[in-house]
Amino acid sequence: IKWFVGSNEPNYAGSAGSKNFYNTYEKWQKGVLQVRKALDDLKLNWIGIVGGDTTGFAGTQEYLTNIAKNIPTEVGDYGCHLYLSNYLVDKGELYSQTKQLYDEIKAIDPGLGVYRQADVWEAGLLDGKNGATDCQALIDTTDYAVRMADYTIQCLAAGINGIVYWDFDDAMHFMYVNNTQTAKEWGMFSTLAGASASKQELRPWFHSSSLLNHLFKKGNKVYSPLQNDPSVDEYFRSLATINQDGTQGGFIAVNAGVKKATKTFYMEDTVLGEKLYVYRFYDGAIRLGEDGFIIPNEIINGSLNKKITMEIPANALVVVSNERL
Predict the structure, then answer these.
(1) How far is residue 118 from each of residues 101, 142, 173, measured CA to CA in Å?
(2) For 167-198, how does the pLDDT look when each residue is reduced to its tens digit (9 = 90+)?
(3) What does each C-alpha distance from 249 to 114, 162, 177, 231, 312 come to in angstroms?
């Protein structure tokens, strides 16, 4: 056990009379202090408390800045849930708002990024959500996959350490609709026996998420260019990554615009390897192997330390790595 979450979305008040309606930050902080003491008394001091686990930017700002002021050493993590409309991702607003909040917390608690990390513990998109069934209608689309990759790039560029996608398997969560237990379909596939064959297939955002997960390995350094600021380029984002000994690395780029973009990439840090594995992720370009998992579109002779110029179509994700992902 590494993390303890004291309360799911404590800033969510719900309707008058609900159990959450009288939630306050002060009540939440009191609970955190009691749990921290209990864990420490049991010599379980390695278990970190997720600070916040709030939903939305407004509530997250309230809780996380108060944590930074009052109990920064009692928590191990600044965490939140962010379900966002497409436009916030497409135009880079996610980066701007996340960076502003991160910098605000960092100014109060210099331990952020050193002793305490920041994570998005639930990440998803609202466009396409059915409020009655709590299902996401767009998870079968390549657009959803590219946009979630863009979401990830913007969060990492703003200082976030990790992102937990909501969610993995449709079978994970249920709700009652007209007195019938119904799966919340937000996953990358479904393992439910009663699900249709198409829903049991791996969805596009499984493959894009797999690429990101294998490229950005634990302990890697991550580099964000100045162009990720939407005031510089509103629709194009990219990141580079390299492990500690320079044996593994690559870059990822998303063009969220409506026109193709021609960009040149290279990494200054030395990265070993003489082959590059290029993955092009957009409608008509995704390649799957016989085992059903994604494979590179091209394997070329080259180095991440030499300039690579690429034409990236509109609404597209490109990943280049010095090893097969």
Answers:
(1) 11, 28, 25
(2) 999 999 988 888 888 899 999 999 999 999 99
(3) 23, 18, 46, 28, 20
pLDDT at position 126:
96
Could you tell me if 120 and 163 are in contact, meaning their C-beta atoms sit under 8 angstroms apart? yes
Report pLDDT digits (tens) over 2-32. 999 988 999 987 777 777 788 899 999 999 9
Mean pLDDT of 57-62: 92
Per-residue model confidence (pLDDT) at position 106 = 97
Q: Terminus-to-terminus CA distance in the chain, angstroms? A: 29
pLDDT digits (tens, 9 = 90+) for 35-45: 999 999 999 99
Residues in the chain: 325
Three-state DSSP string of the chain: CCEECCCCCCCCCCCCCCCCCCCCHHHHHHHHHHHHHHHHHCCCCCCEEEEEEEECHHHHHHHHHHHHHHCHHHCCEEEEEEEECHHHHHCCHHHHHHHHHHHHHHHHCCCECCCEEEEEEEEEECCCEECCCCEECCCCCHHHHHHHHHHHHHHHHHCCCEEEECCCEHHHCEEEECCEEEECCCCCECCCCCCCHHHHCCCHHHHHHHHHHHHCCCCCEEECCHHHCCCCCCCEEEEEEECCCCCCEEEEEEECCCCCEEEEECCCCCCCCCEEEEEEECCCCCCECCCCCECCCEEEECCCCCCEEEEECCCEEEEEECCCC
